[in-house]
Amino acid sequence: MTTQRTDVYTQVTDNIIAAIEAGAGQWQMPWHRSGEGLNRPVNIDTSNAYRGINVINLWVSAQVRGFTTGTWGTYRQWQNKGCQVRKGEKSSLVVFYKEFDVEDQKDDGETEHGKRLMARASWVFNADQVDGYEASAIPEPTDPVKSIDKAERFVSATGAVVRHGGDRAFYRPSEDIIQMPDRERFLGSETSTATEAYWSTLLHELTHWSGASNRCDRQFGKRFGDDAYAMEELVAELGAAFLCADLGVTLEPRPDHAAYLDNWLKVLKADKKAIFTAASQAARASDYLTGLQPAGITEAAA
After folding, report:
1. pTM of the entire predicted model
2. Alpha-carbon span 154 to 158, nearest angstrom
3. Of the candidates 152, 197, 158, 202, the residue with the CA atom closest to the CA atom of residue 180
4. Extended beta strands in 71-209, E state
5. Which one of 82, 96, 129, 178 has the fewest beta carbons within 10 angstroms of its own beta carbon?
6. Residue 21 and residue 109: Cα distance in Å, rounded?
């Protein structure tokens, strides 16, 4: 059991590390993509979006292997849809958690019963790897105007206080405010417009805002010590990626993004469960912020 659990954490973490190291020179992470990369990957059988660490890991697989779709399924799930995985295709790992009963012997001799979750591996293939699959409908191109309007309404509904001025974006816990540069300071790039750069940056800071003690109460100091700041930045990076995917906004790398890469790699290499923790906390932040929305603002992943 221990060997398998460790192997799952190691395989996923090594995939993420390889992607970061491959993209570091260009500031191009798997979640800094336009087009299909904006969407959360979905399962062919349930039509549900994958969550947490599986979103990140499948984004990585799609980028590294050049897949053009975000639809995935196990070998049997594809067979059940009348499709055939092509011979020689390599699967991608996803993680699910299985609950099991445990018994702990206490100091007083009594036995304490409880439950624990174990990470288990499953293996999936992308729609580009199978024959006989036809998408039910070609999704319409994202309307950038509607996406930005949706993002603006999303942020407004959270009630977060956003101030403008200066040349830095940050969340200040002591005042519980988000500080943003004026919108005209943001520039476009090959993958996103200046407006998208503004909103993706604001969603990054909004994820920081969600970590306050009266919200998600994120605290990494006890486990990660001096690396707690790097972990919080990774959570904000992934949280913004999840939100941008749901809202249809291309996530633009922050100007200071490269400065965090070495710190992230240091944390991930030292702790094989760190990326799982970051992805879990990012998903929790995304869920919390989505829960503040009136019905209909987002089409958040299930």
Report:
1. 0.85
2. 7
3. 202
4. 71-73, 84-85, 92-105, 111-126, 130-131, 161-164, 170-172, 177-180
5. 82
6. 50
What residues of the chain score a pLDDT lower than 50? Answer: 1-6, 27, 35-37, 298-302
What's the full length of the chain, in residues?
A: 302
Tokens representing 254 are: 């922050």
Any idea where the domains of the chain sit in the sequence? Answer: 2-131, 144-291
Do residues 251 and 200 lie in contact, with contact meaning Cβ atoms separated by under 8 Å?
yes
Position 36: which residue type?
A: E
Query: CA 63, CA 43: separation in Å to the nearest integer?
Result: 18
Please calculate the CA angle 238-25-42 and round it to the nearest 5 degrees.
35
What pLDDT score was predicted for residue 240?
92
Chain CA centroid to CA 128, Å: 22
Q: Helix, strand, or coil here: 9? A: helix
- pLDDT at residue 138, as a whole number: 56
Query: What does the pLDDT read at residue 25?
Result: 53
Q: Return the pLDDT at 5.
A: 47
User: What span, in angstroms and rounded, lies between the C-alpha atoms of 16 and 276?
Assistant: 11
Adjacent-strand bridge partners of 113: 103
CB 118 within 8 A of CB 7: no
Which tokens in the block code for residue 43?
Answer: 């399962």
One-letter identity of residue 191:
T
Determine the Cα–Cα distance for residues 227 and 166; give it in Å rounded to an integer: 28
Instruction: Name residue, tokens 């005042």.
Output: 175
89's tokens = 């295709």
| Strand duo 92-105 + 111-126: pairing | antiparallel
